[in-house]
Design brief:
Helices cover 28% and strands 34% of the residues. It is α+β, with helices and mostly antiparallel strands and 296 residues long. It has 2 domains: 126 residues, Rossmann fold (3-Layer(aba) Sandwich), CATH 3.40.50; 156 residues, Tumour Suppressor Smad4 (Sandwich).
């Protein structure tokens, strides 16, 4: 999040100095560190764990606390902040350390809402043994995410703008990838542009890839887009951003509880905003009502 999360620390310390609640602040030092830190705490006691960062940090916190009785609160301070859009009723772009973390009208600050907020159980997904809370995608979009991470490091470049810029860069080099997709026993084999397996609605800085996805319905929602020409991709992309792409003939939606995707070739994969290059078989499953989330 370009260091935004670190700006919250003095504000959080200032807030807790006025109340008697015991709190601990940990700063991650390397990839996977949040998993280790959270496991150390939740293995000893029940906590309310605050993920202060973006979707990648949230994914690590989730993997550290999954299976415990601790609850999860999200203070969005990353570049995308996509999952939190599914549980907040206002734009996370309006949140800043100076305005919302400890200051607000009628003492209704984000931190206070997360301390006093109600909890609800939400679903999570599992990919080859690792948990995810929002969306995983394979293909064109994952390559776009990979490129957008580099672009976001530039000054004054926001999440959605970085994503759009990286789309054009990926269009130049992307080639279709044949995938075998099995959804609760139903097999689909197509040359694909992208496949998104979703628990939440939003990714890529606010795009509604799977607009009907719900985080507590017991299903994963799948958006499959068949490969088409570069110019047509550009034509329907604005609809994809708004979640209005269901009418496009190359787009199909499915729902399921167990999904397998098999790729003979190497393909880019995005999991909660973090990308990797994979091949072979990827198994997805939904775990209903698995994590206790704090509603702000």
């Amino acid at each position: 999040g370009k260091g935004k999360a670190l700006e919250y620390i003095p504000k959080i310390e200032e807030y807790f100095s006025t109340i008697k609640d015991i709190f601990f602040i940990e700063v991650t030092r390397y990839p996977g560190h949040a998993i280790e830190l959270v496991k150390q705490y939740v293995s000893k006691d029940t906590f309310r764990v605050y993920s202060v960062g973006g979707d990648g940090t949230l994914n690590e916190v989730l993997n550290g606390m999954a299976g415990s009785d601790s609850s999860l609160a999200v203070i969005p301070s990353g570049s995308g902040n996509d999952f939190v859009k599914s549980i907040m009723n206002y734009s996370v772009d309006k949140i800043s350390p100076e305005k919302d973390i400890t200051k607000g009208p009628s003492k209704n600050t984000l931190l206070e809402r997360l301390i006093n907020g109600n909890e609800t159980m939400v679903d999570i997904g599992k990919i080859n043994g690792r948990y995810f809370i929002n969306i995983s995608s394979l293909g064109f979009d994952a390559e776009v995410v990979y490129k957008s991470h580099k672009i976001k490091k530039l000054p004054l470049v926001t999440g959605l703008f970085a994503y759009i810029l990286s789309v054009f860069a990926t269009l130049i080099s992307y080639k279709t990838n044949p995938l075998k997709i099995i959804i609760d026993g139903q097999t689909i084999e197509k040359g694909t542009l992208l496949v998104a397996v979703a628990n939440g609605k939003y990714y890529g800085g606010g795009m509604q890839a799977v607009p009907l996805a719900e985080i507590s319905d017991g299903f994963l929602d799948i958006c499959l887009i068949e490969y088409t020409g570069r110019f047509k991709i550009l034509k329907f992309f604005p609809k994809f951003i708004k979640g209005e792409h269901a009418e496009i003939k190359e787009v199909s939606f499915y729902r399921g509880k167990n999904i397998s995707i098999i790729s003979k070739n190497k393909v880019a994969m995005n999991v909660d905003g973090e990308t990797d290059i994979i091949s072979g078989k990827i198994d997805f499953e939904i775990i209903p009502k698995a994590v206790r989330i704090v509603l702000p």
